[in-house]
Specification:
single chain; 80 residues; alpha+beta; YefM-like fold; 3-stranded mixed sheet; 31% helix; Antitoxin
Length: 80
């Protein structure tokens, strides 16, 4: 548990890859917070978009976040 009282599940990169569909389902439906540690010991945190929106707006709807800024590309082409 983090100092702020959030329960985070921790996975290595390899574990996360093997269980990715299940992890995503738990993040979205169970609002779980998942930490994935890469080989370089840097970590990323997976949270649902609903939880992110709630955190980033202080619990209020964020109509300005509904559409991506002009000229942005909202896909993973070039990332993988």
């Amino acid at each position: 548990m983090t100092p702020g009282g959030i329960c985070m599940l921790n996975f290595s990169y390899e574990e996360a890859l093997q269980n990715f569909p299940h992890l995503l389902d738990n993040v979205v439906t169970g609002h779980e917070v998942i930490t994935v540690q890469g080989a370089n010991h840097e970590s990323v945190v997976l949270i649902s978009k609903d939880d992110f929106d709630s955190i980033s707006t202080g619990g209020l709807p964020a109509p300005t976040l509904a559409a991506p800024p002009p000229g942005t590309n909202n896909n993973l082409d070039g990332w993988l």
